[in-house]
Write a structure and sequence with these properties.
The complex is a heterotrimer of chains A (293), B (251) and C (320). With 293 residues, chain A is mainly alpha-helical. Helices cover 76% and strands 2% of the residues of chain A. Chain A has helices spanning 3-35, 42-59, 64-91, 98-120, 144-166, 168-178, 180-185, 190-212, 224-237, 242-262, 265-282, 284-287; strands spanning 134-136, 141-143. In chain B, β7 (173-177), α6 and β8 form a beta-alpha-beta unit. Helices cover 39% and strands 25% of the residues of chain B. Chain C is 75% helix and 4% strand. Chain C has helices at residues 3-26, 29-54, 63-80, 84-106, 111-131, 133-136, 163-185, 188-198, 200-205, 210-236, 246-259, 266-281, 286-302, 306-314, and strands at residues 142-143, 150-153, 156-159, 238-239. In chain C, α3 (63-80) runs antiparallel to α4 (84-106), α11 (246-259) crosses α12 (266-281) and α11 (246-259) runs parallel beside α14. Classes of the chains: A mainly alpha (293), B alpha/beta (251), C mainly alpha (320). The interface between A and C is large, with 40 and 36 residues.
């Protein structure tokens, strides 16, 4: 293949990656922005979303599109309930202390992952795409489903944007993010807002997973990669900044696809992890939202 | 006043600090004499706390110069300034709540022992430490609470503990930021006695809203307003100053 | 500290170590190997606890120091045919240097950022062991050669294939580490650590260079962890990437939290409890990680002080 078409293909793959990544990174970013905690179990919510999607589409008869649409509702709902419960039961008990929350969510990571291993088994399973058609470019054919993933992700992001900027829930969220004590004084049920935002973050990860499940295989360890990638995106984008996160998701999702084609994936991961750690150390003001501008 | 007698312990030249767009401290020239008690007063937001934080090294200054005992300390971090003898008690009490009163003061005493053992070779640590701690506790009247946790002390005693911790370091200059805030009338009286007691070999800077307290203790008073120095005089002179009245009471 | 309680606590520590030295006579053979392993991991946790328990810095990347010691000891033995004692000393030095370097960079951050940064550095180290698999053996690891199973030191022949020798070597190392940590914790150094943990800004304003204090603690912590890694590799004659994985960082945290952060014996107790807890549940490998997760959550919710920390708060105030 010539360079032009090759780059087009790589960009398309990168866009699909960026689309899904932006959903799960946005989830992590929202949770950090409002609750000021890092959710290490975020990748596991992604994984559970994919497992639910597979189970739903596997259990339902009829056209795969039907199963997919049901999964699109069921997976985030299921994951949201788990996350909400975890926040109200576990994280509230430790007052959302940032360090304790990391320890607790590491615990949640193991519990969720190992429970899925016991229930779902160690095998990777493929999920049937909701529809098959190929978009034919002059040089290669491309999966129509993958293109629709990009569109669906954009639609979902727009919905999230609408909720945050135009609804009462979004207003409560922003008020809580700005000043927790003040919000409490004004009678905002901060505990509930925390629970809902934590659930919303997890639901975004699950939505991303439903979209990606028909492309990748569903596996109980599949949460680690989105977790690390979301970390990287959220740090580069400036923790808590939605615009920065989306931009970083686009850049990193796109470049990851291309870099992995050129270098060994292990080396690529090594270098990018090291770079991100150094960014976090030497430019924390710009990256951690809570610091002074 | 005879200028030759006065030895400048600390002086600043054109000291500046801004936060975002707000100028908190603006072109402050300030001079402090060895052994004096200096009061700093001024309305809320006048820049008093920011100014002493620049002295102690909590914040870095944007421009200007700070000289302490003839040494330019402008660029030095807080811990180096502390070793030179500048101690600071925070506006919001800052102690070690999870440790005993004894351990709190011992942490202060240990710095002093470290430093003196550098100059004179006396590796005998234990008796020195206990002695310093006991002295400081007796001075502040906390000796009976020796083994209690700092968190369990009453608020007034926690403030005293912070002073005890700082005394253990044996500072040349002790900066007290709002020491009487939240204390009862009786406690303030005791506190005044304590300060009179410890002033013998030290220089003190007092920031306080309690004007009678400051006027009673201070040798000289500096009035700050809008980040700059508005007036500086002995307490009587300040009380007569019209500009000061305007700054406090409004135009 | 009161004289009396000082003696009491020293007696307790020596008593615990003495008890460990008697265990092989009491317990059936099956436990010997397990306890040997636990003691080395306890030494790792002991090092972790210096930083986490005393200075209050929560690292999520201590596996990199453990693995650093493991490889720095194992690789020269495997590739260059070094003697075991020399390789061990080399590993100790390398771990100290690595900890100093990582500390100098990572300690610019605090709190959550420090956790994430150490996690990421450790992940880089882990990936490096995989990437350079032609040297490290990667995931499969390397089995150390026969010559590394016995060596002579001070005219004594030490045979590492003997379970007894391994047991007492591990115990010796653990005891030495515990007593060193005990000594430091009860000295001016320990007071500085706790001062930083309890109120870093106050400590700095008193004239302490808190960065240097933290860096020193990091080096001590990393060196102890690295020594434990070196001991693990040399005693069991195997080195592999697994030991650099995040799992081991979490284990050190778990053992320390469980036993009681900021107590000398806590990490040792935590290692024993966790090992036998897992032993009790297991059969299949999955239970191990599930138990890890459940215990972590329960600890952080209900017993953030751990077993010994809770005991100390309720009854035994003299416990160091």
């Amino acid at each position: 293949m010539d360079l032009g078409p090759f780059l087009l293909l790589a960009s398309l793959e990168g866009l699909v990656q960026a689309a899904v990544l932006s959903l799960s990174a946005l989830g992590l970013c929202l949770v950090f922005g409002v609750l000021r905690v890092v959710n290490v179990a975020h990748g596991e919510f992604h994984m559970v979303g994919a497992v639910i999607a597979w189970s739903v589409s596997h259990a339902l008869f009829g056209h795969p599109l039907f199963g997919f649409l049901v999964a699109l509702l069921a997976a985030p709902l299921f994951v949201g309930v788990i996350a909400f419960t975890a926040d109200r039961v576990i994280l509230r008990k430790i007052n959302h202390n940032p360090e304790a929350t990391i320890v607790a969510t590491i615990g949640m990571l193991y519990v969720i992952q190992q429970s899925v291993l016991i229930g779902f088994g160690p095998d990777a399973r493929a999920m049937e795409p909701p529809f098959y058609f190929h978009v034919n470019f002059p040089w290669f054919g491309y999966s129509g489903y993958k293109l629709s993933v990009i569109l669906m992700a954009v639609a979902l992001l727009l919905m999230v944007w609408h909720v945050i900027s135009r609804t009462r829930l979004g207003l409560l969220m922003r008020a809580t993010q700005l000043d927790r004590e003040m919000a409490q004084v004004f009678g905002i049920p901060v505990g509930w807002v925390y629970g809902l935002v934590f659930a919303a973050g997890a639901m975004l990860a699950a939505l991303g997973a439903v979209l990606i499940a028909p492309i990748r295989q569903v596996h109980y360890l599949m949460g680690l990669d989105p977790l690390l990638m979301s970390f990287i995106v959220v740090i580069i984008g400036g923790l808590g900044s939605i615009r920065g996160t989306l931009l970083a998701a686009l850049v990193i999702g796109m470049s990851d696809g291309i870099i992995s084609m050129l270098f060994s994936p292990t080396l690529a991961k090594m270098i990018s992890t090291l770079l991100v750690a150094l960014v976090l150390i030497f430019k924390p003001e710009g990256l951690f939202g809570q610091h002074k501008p | 006043m005879v200028a030759l007698v006065a030895v400048s312990l600390l002086s600043t030249r054109k000291l500046n600090r801004r936060f975002g767009g707000i100028v908190a401290v603006k072109d402050v020239d300030f001079s402090l004499e060895q052994g004096e008690i200096r009061g700093i007063i001024g309305p809320n937001g006048a820049g008093k706390t920011t100014f002493v934080n620049l002295l102690s090294g909590c914040f870095a200054s944007d421009s200007g110069q700070i000289v302490f005992q003839g040494v330019d300390i402008t660029g030095q971090p807080a811990w180096k300034r502390a070793r030179l003898g500048i101690a600071y008690t925070f506006q919001i009490t800052s102690i070690y709540p999870g440790l005993t009163v004894f351990e709190n003061v011992a942490i202060g005493a240990q710095v002093r022992i470290r430093q003196s053992s550098k100059s004179k070779a006396s590796p005998d640590e234990k008796p020195g430490l206990e002695e310093i701690v006991d002295n400081c506790l007796r001075l502040t009247g906390l000796d009976r609470s020796r083994t209690r946790l700092a968190a369990e002390l009453a608020y007034g005693h926690q403030r005293l503990l912070e002073i005890a911790v700082n005394l253990a370091v044996d500072p040349v200059l002790l900066i007290l930021d709002e020491p009487t805030q939240g204390l009862s009338v009786d406690e303030i009286e005791e506190f005044t006695g304590l300060l009179k007691c410890i002033r013998s070999n030290r220089t003190l800077i007092l920031i306080d809203h309690n004007l009678p307290f400051v006027m009673n203790l201070a040798d000289r008073v500096t009035v700050m307003d809008q980040g700059g120095i508005l007036a500086e005089n002995d307490p009587k002179g300040i009380q007569r100053d019209v500009r000061v009245k305007t700054a406090y009471l409004g135009e | 500290m009161m004289e009396n309680s000082g003696k009491r606590s020293l007696a307790l520590h020596i008593g615990v170590l003495a008890l460990l030295s008697l265990l092989p006579f009491i317990l059936p053979d099956y436990h010997h190997l397990t306890i040997t392993r636990i003691m080395i991991l306890a030494m790792f946790a002991l090092g972790y606890n210096v930083l986490f328990g005393y200075v209050g810095l929560l690292s999520l990347g201590h596996a990199m120091f453990f693995a650093c010691g493991l490889y720095a000891a194992g690789l020269p033995v495997y590739h260059l045919g070094w003697e075991v004692p020399l390789a061990f000393l080399f590993a100790v030095v390398i771990s100290a240097l690595a900890a100093a370097l990582i500390g100098a960079i990572a300690l610019r951050t605090q709190g959550v950022a420090f956790m994430i940064v150490t996690l990421m550095f450790s992940q880089v180290a882990y990936l490096a062991t995989l990437y350079f698999s032609n040297v490290t053996g990667g995931d499969e690891g390397l089995v150390l050669p026969e010559h590394a199973r016995r060596f002579e030191i001070l005219g004594m022949l030490v045979d590492l294939t003997s379970p007894q020798v391994r047991y007492y070597t591990a115990l010796g190392l653990l005891s030495a580490s515990a007593l060193i940590v005990y000594r430091w914790v009860n000295s001016g150094l320990g007071r500085e650590w706790v001062a930083v943990r309890e109120n870093e800004s106050r400590t700095g304003m008193l004239g302490y260079n808190t960065f240097l204090i933290k860096l020193k603690a990091m080096v001590i912590s990393g060196t102890l962890s690295g020594s434990a890694g070196a001991a693990y590799g040399l005693l069991f004659a195997y080195i592999g990437s697994t030991f650099a994985s995040i799992q081991y960082s979490i284990d050190a945290l778990l053992f320390t939290l469980l036993g009681g952060a900021g107590t000398v014996l806590g990490p040792i107790l935590g290692s024993f409890i966790m090992f036998y807890l897992i032993d009790f549940f297991s059969g299949h490998t999955t239970a191990y990680l599930l138990a890890t997760g459940v215990v972590l959550i329960l600890l952080i919710m209900y017993f953030p002080l751990g077993v010994l920390g809770t005991l100390r708060k309720r009854w035994l105030h003299w416990l160091p």
